[in-house]
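Fold this sequence, please.
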Amino acid sequence: MIRKLSSTEFDSILYVINDAAEAYRDVIPEDRWKESYMSAQELSEEVESGVQFYGWMEEKALVAVMGMQQVRDITLIRHAYVLPDQQRKGIGQNLLKCLLQLSKTSQILVGTWKAAWWAIRFYEKNGFVLTSRREKNRLLREYWTIPKRQVETSVVLSFNRKC
């Protein structure tokens, strides 16, 4: 049910991201929301920058996506979305476990919106730890390319693989 997604599934990936991102509409700062949440151009840029997408298939339909990107010495979990009618079925957790196994680095980071309490709780339940504000700011500047305003309104969670 989990597999690496190909460029031929671009439109399906974009659909899942934008449909599931509706959960953020009234939660994240108004100045950070836009229609569509992610454009085709933005998704193209993410793929070109090295984000590899994996997906969960149900009856040949893509219902969840999660990306991973190696940046120097760490792995970033990027763009994790499950269609609303498929949430709370363990799909996100299974995708995350798969990507954690595929990662070749000892530290894995994920960034999300500070106001997205459900996302923060999800990652914490799966072994991630919220970083301090100072560490978050450092990590976002070092490993992500996002606007200053997004840094202000985000958090970073860290997963350290036991050796």
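The helical segments are 10-20, 40-48, 91-102, 117-125, 133-143, 148-152. Residues 91-102 form the longest helix (12 residues).
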